[in-house]
């Protein structure tokens, strides 16, 4: 069974690479036909996507953000002037990992507001954490690999500004790991989502090439039971064309509007962790969840007499 899963994964990856490499029209149509045959849900979704209209406003945003461009961005904050100083105050100094947790007993005390990233294994959660928390120097804090099942523990990161915390979660769906271990990390993730009082937003990462897949739909049923507000983030946008991305976003928005999901925001974010495009816009979106300076000051005073506070959080609040 595991051999079959592994081979089908390798086959899908190879086909993805072939599709990217082949750009001539003739080869492209051959590759797409092969892909359609290989993908289990391929045909219906692809033809639906082709029939989906392109919203010019969505297309304009995509082009403004340059998320579909495969070129790496030179500047970290290209659209700096468009955003308030508050985004810089919260994010620009980056953050650090202060705790890993394999089981709920290891969760750190809930102190700062948290934003968690979830999604299928290999969708790029840890890469996006690095884009968000790496600061202007783009430090690589979370381990990333082209291997589903890299992150097996919850990683808690605190921003050096002391306003917000970011949590990298292990993925769901297919991963190279023992069934028992996968089951255990999924249980820990579910426990975290249900009990964490300081969790303010759940970012559900989707691969821009595939959109919402079966594994995501299964998890979305579970998210309905959680109280937290969620938001879709289409990652790996550098691997798709702008018109395909515009259609994909339109489709997802339609699905959200149909009311099948609960507490999911209609605003679908777009990123490419490779080029860092869209990361700043996402930071700006999340800044509203961070502590206000007065709340931060009060928290700093409260924590002065409390034990059990991780050093990194104490340091961040002192700064
Ligand atoms: N082209 C492209 N590749 C990406 C992007 N984001 C991540 N990747 C690649 O996708 C692979 C998986 O990235 P990770 O960040 O480790 O994925 P993950 O979701 O954390 O995976 P798990 O920890 O296994 O759940 C790596 O090889 C990354 O280089 C992106 O925006 N564009
Ligand atoms: Mg990871």
Automatic annotation (TrEMBL):
Alphabetized SUPFAM superfamilies for the sequence: P-loop containing nucleoside triphosphate hydrolases (SSF52540)
Names of the cofactor(s): Mg(2+)
Keywords: Cell cycle, Cell division, GTP-binding, Magnesium, Metal-binding, Nucleotide-binding, Septation
Pfam families from the UniProt entry: MMR_HSR1
GO biological-process terms attached to the record: cell division
Domain spans labelled EngB-type G: 111-292
GO MF terms held by the record: GTP binding; metal ion binding
CDD domains: YihA_EngB
Similarity comment: Belongs to the TRAFAC class TrmE-Era-EngA-EngB-Septin-like GTPase superfamily. EngB GTPase family.
Stated name of the protein: EngB-type G domain-containing protein
Native organism taxonomy: Eukaryota, Rhodophyta, Bangiophyceae, Galdieriales, Galdieriaceae
